[in-house]
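#struct-help
A.M.: can someone run this one for me? Single chain, 161 residues.
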Amino acid sequence: MTNDSWLEIFGEASASSLEAPCSDHLPLILWSAPTIRVNRRKRFRFENCWITEPQCREIISRNWVLSEGMNLSTRFDICSRALWNLGKNLNKSLQPKIEFWKRRMEYLRGRSDNQGILEFITAQRNCIQLIEKHGTYWKQRAKVFWYKGGDNNSKFYHNSV
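D.P.: on it. Structure tokens below:
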């Protein structure tokens, strides 16, 4: 007897029974021939911080229109792939951008002329927006981790509490 995950790994395995002259039980011999594992893409998860990206709505609209006439599942898959491509580097680039704007604010802090003050305010606004976006990303990520490791008397739970 096997289950789906076993068959996924050992799809080409075979078994046969051997003769046992002194018993009414037959021993089994199993020849496992593991199949080549194909790396599948991780399950798509929408990140809330993408909502603030100007191109998010455009990507969804464009891909929804392009997939018109296809079944709903395929349309969702097409949109999710396009969003995944947008987001795969977006979250990785947040921290360097935050650091850039912090350095820019530090550089402009000593200036007292109108142009310097306006540039400082712009840098501060950009930095705050990125920090909020980064916070939204980690807030959602923390919920995912909590649900995975949650309150099931696990090491994760006791360390969190």
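A.M.: thanks! The chain has three domains: 1-39, 41-90, 92-145.
D.P.: also worth noting: Residues 92-145 form one domain.
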